[in-house]
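cron nightly-structures :: item 1 of 1
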Amino acid sequence: MLSRTRTDLLLLAGFCSFFFFYGISQFGLIGADEPRYAQVAREMLARKDWITPFLWGQPWLEKPPLYYWQAMLSYSVFGVSDWAARVPSAVDATLLILAVYLFFRRLRPPVALDAALVTAACAGIIGYSRAASTDMALASTFAIAMLAWWAWRETMQRMCLVVFYACMALGMLAKGPVAPLLAALVVALYSLAAREPRLILKTLSLPGILVFCIIALPWYFAVQTRNPQFFGEFILQHNLARFSSDLFHHREPFWYYLPVALLALLPWTAFIIAGSIETVRVWWSDRKSRPDQPDFDFQFSLFACSWLIVPVAFFTLSQSKLPGYILPAVPAGAILLANYMLSHSDREAPPPSKWLIVAHSVLAVAPFIPAVLIARLVSEHRLPGGKPAFVALAIAFLLAAGIALTLASKLGLRMLRFVTLIPVILTVAAVLKLGSSALDQSLTARPVAQDIASIETHPLPLAVYGVSRELEYGLTFYRNQLTLRYEWGSVPREEHLLVTPEGWQPEVAKLTPGRRVSFLGHYPPQHLDYFWVSAAPRE
């Protein structure tokens, strides 16, 4: 048993290293949030302030501090860099996988390794484990809390309930009151579905609540004391207003999270849907029965379904939608599939239906095609044709055929994890090997900042005009200086550098009358021009 556990842990360490850590420095910070969060942690570390998040020298109270604390520790060990800013999410994902393994090793040992690897190989987990953001911190703490709650439910060990509250407190520090709110909804939905509403009251543990308060509340009291505007900005604006209105312009269709969830659960989506349908069907057929002894194997699937549904349904009601919001639901899909595999692991069990096998095979290899063609996809904004596309399709077809034939054999679900991990590994490898350079050049500010540094003779203020906020925030992080924006009326009076879309020199001249504007260079991958702007004439 000890030897098997050691082998499993070594295998998980290898997969986590590849999926979460390998190549995290190969392209720069993407989007607006990554460089912004990374910069907040840098400024907090420079100030030696562990209470108030700062951005551009001002309190920035949109998010709690757990990610910032982790990034500050990472910077202290590795130095400030983009990849060091991503280490916390990779560590959080690894802790999540370890928790899933240990949970199943204790309560569902036959599928412990399957559960951990299925979770690790979900597209949502791999993607957000490589992002400098708060999403993985919330997903990890929330998932560990849910597993601890179920361990208490099945074993009635009070310590498991204390762990549940402790992880909820960490979730509260990761992203705010949404963590305990989602947990309460999951527990309530499951308890009502299982016809055991008393579980809701039993979950209220005085020692657990005390632990929650000890962990979560000191920072909230401290930051409110130092920043009286915190309650209004964080609770009222960035929680309640963000949920009830499109205050931050993240409006999406009502059905937005359905495709997002299906994509986040790749490559396991087809089997997770099958497991969910089977669980709901069995629950519906037995909804009037009240057995003396609960079937914990089935009840666990019902719990996983409740956990999967709640974040998707809750954020569907939100007026502000971002894909990372439903990341806490992804581990639920993985453990639901693991329990489904356990219930169908009997050698006498029939193989999955041919339509389920075909659907899984196609979905498992589908991401491989854009991964192989990602360099052209990023630069041309479309899937290219020709020989590269034909080769990618041919390889994908062979992979899908191999998966389908294996799952249709007598081995059935026992080989699901093995055959599905092959295209996942190839997909991640293709993105890192073939696409990282294109991603870096086309989507991040890192090469732009390097290009600007190579042409400036001495450090100058930097301004932008007409470019995306993603580039603006990225330049702020990579240059570690506030990037001014002409649109705000912030045309510096002193000598400075300016970044604009190509061909914008006439527009620049209108905003800088009487000043010399010299063209310095061009960055083709993002269609940008660089200018030197002289100091404003004295009035």
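cron nightly-structures :: done
The beta strands are 54-55, 58-59, 462-464, 484-485, 496-501, 517-523, 528-533.
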